[in-house]
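ok so for the tutorial part 2 we go from a plain amino acid sequence to predicted structure tokens. step 1 is just haveing the sequence, like this:
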Amino acid sequence: MKAIRLMEVKRPLQTQELPIPQVGPDDVLVQVKAAGICHSDAHYRAGVSPVYPLPLTLGHEVAGVVVEVGTAVAQFQPGQRVCLHYMATCGHCHYCQRHNEQFCTTGKMIGKYRDGGYAEYIVVPASSVFVLPDAIPFAQGAVLMCSSATALHALHKTRLQPGESVAIFGMGGLGMSAVQLAFALGAAHVYTVDIKESKLSLAQQYGATPINALDTDPVATIQELTNGRGVDVALELIGLPLTMQQAVQVLGIMGRAGIAGLSDRSFTIAPYTELLNKEAEIIGVSDHLAQEIPLLLDLVTQGKLDLTGVVSRTIPLDADEINRVLDRLDLFSDEVRVVIVP
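step 2 — the prediction. this is what the tokens look like for a chain of 342 residues:
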């Protein structure tokens, strides 16, 4: 089968021909129908976040069709449309038992620590497989598996309550899902911050108040729009020190900032004025949980989460095409989510 792989950090991805993966007793073999290209993949290629062992097939947003199941798998059968939770976990360690399986002691994320979906086929444990409703296209099902799922997890971690206000920094795939999910969970107001007018316009269509950081100071603007109260929840989805700092600065009393953007750099806070005097919180957001995926799928089928505008375009399973998309992601392009369709 054809696979697009990271052979060496800071080098372009390359095409390799590999055997179709073998199915173990608890596994499911899936023919990939769609694989989203996440900004994290650009970070992996650049070495910002470690990936091993190399060479490795990237791609952690995956949807497809079941081809074969292991001898111990009874809940799936060939021909079913599915989407894949990107963590392959043990199910019985300390973290899995407490429903924090993203920290599984032996867990491996597809496209980061085991081969992912930039390929014609992928094998995963059955516990990572979810039936994809017929009403959800494969491209949207793939995007759900990272950007939407992580956005939902970030809102859960920051304990968003109905009637609260939210500021979202970064209108990429995560941001567009976060806007819609925040409203679905009852947010009264959502403020979106970016420097790309096209992305802000799309967020506005979803009901958000857009703020272009090229034209104004987002912290001052949000403080003005909230009559000096600040927001209850802020999500940082970019991974830049400036926007992480701003996400803390826009918080009101008892506010919670969820930091989900990948970065290898630090940011500065003023402990008294920005945290202690508000009893505010800074919360790390790592991945998402398998038990959150059924809710996501329900929200899509109910029409509360629409990814039609989030999928910017599709491309073939081609190394040159994928590398060009990753190059553009490094430059924070206008595109929201590009999806590979093998």
